[in-house]
């Protein structure tokens, strides 16, 4: 059986050289197109990702209404305890029918600060306590994940987001 190998003629060699020269000449343009296409695709993916994350962040950490006004958490510090909870005290308004509704969390916690209940020297286990007037720090109202209010001592309006809570929707 005769060999089926193509014969290398001068015409065939010139055609191969022409294709090779054309490929070498066009390669930079193909590379530029490929890079441009990749930049557009990955840029689009990046924009979609950033948009999704900012939407999720605004849903998770954006302004939120209070859905549970039966209790308010008055924090005495923005530094959490070792177990992840924050120092301070919970408060509610008692009525003759049981727990009431806290309509103004900021006012309630301000009173607790004013009477020294949230100061570092307060001892809740002491047999007697003589309330003393103390200065009320700047306070921010946040909404915890369970929908209750948390009043935090800070001048920073973004403290709620920094603590993983939502700011109170006004």
Task: State the gist of this model.
With 170 residues, this protein is of the alpha+beta class. It contains three helices and seven strands, in the order αββββαββαβ. It has a five-stranded mixed beta sheet.
List the topology elements.
Layout: H1 10-61, E1 72-75, E2 88-91, E3 94-95, E4 98-99, H2 105-114, E5 139-143, E6 149-153, H3 159-162, E7 166-167
Parallel strand pairs: 1-6
Antiparallel strand pairs: 1-2, 3-4, 5-6, 5-7
Beta-strand fraction estimate? 5-15%
Question: How many helical elements?
Answer: 3
pLDDT averaged over residues: 79
Task: Give unreliable regions as ranges.
Answer: none
* Helical residue percent band: 25-40%
Folded structure, characterized:
This is Septum formation-related domain-containing protein. Keywords: Membrane, Transmembrane, Transmembrane helix. By secondary structure, the chain is of the alpha+beta class. The protein has three helices and seven strands, in the order αββββαββαβ. The chain folds into two domains: 55 residues; 96 residues, no CATH class. A hairpin with a 2-residue loop joins strand 3 and strand 4. The longest helix has 52 residues.
């Amino acid at each position: 059986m005769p060999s089926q190998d193509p014969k290398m003629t001068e015409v065939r060699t010139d055609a191969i050289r022409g294709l090779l020269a054309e490929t070498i000449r066009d390669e930079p343009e193909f590379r530029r197109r490929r890079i441009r296409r990749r930049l557009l695709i990955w840029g689009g993916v990046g924009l979609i990702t950033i948009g999704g994350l900012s939407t999720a962040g605004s849903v998770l950490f954006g302004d939120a209404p209070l859905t549970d006004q039966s209790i308010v958490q008055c924090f005495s510090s923005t530094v959490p305890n070792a177990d992840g909870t924050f120092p301070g005290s919970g408060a509610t308004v008692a009525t003759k029918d049981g727990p009431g509704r806290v309509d103004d969390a900021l006012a309630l916690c301000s009173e607790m600060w004013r009477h020294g209940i949230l100061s570092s020297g307060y001892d809740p286990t002491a047999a007697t306590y003589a309330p003393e007037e103390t200065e009320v720090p700047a306070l921010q109202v946040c909404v915890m994940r369970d929908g209750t209010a948390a009043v935090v001592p800070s001048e920073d309006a973004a403290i709620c987001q920094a603590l993983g809570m939502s700011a109170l929707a006004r």
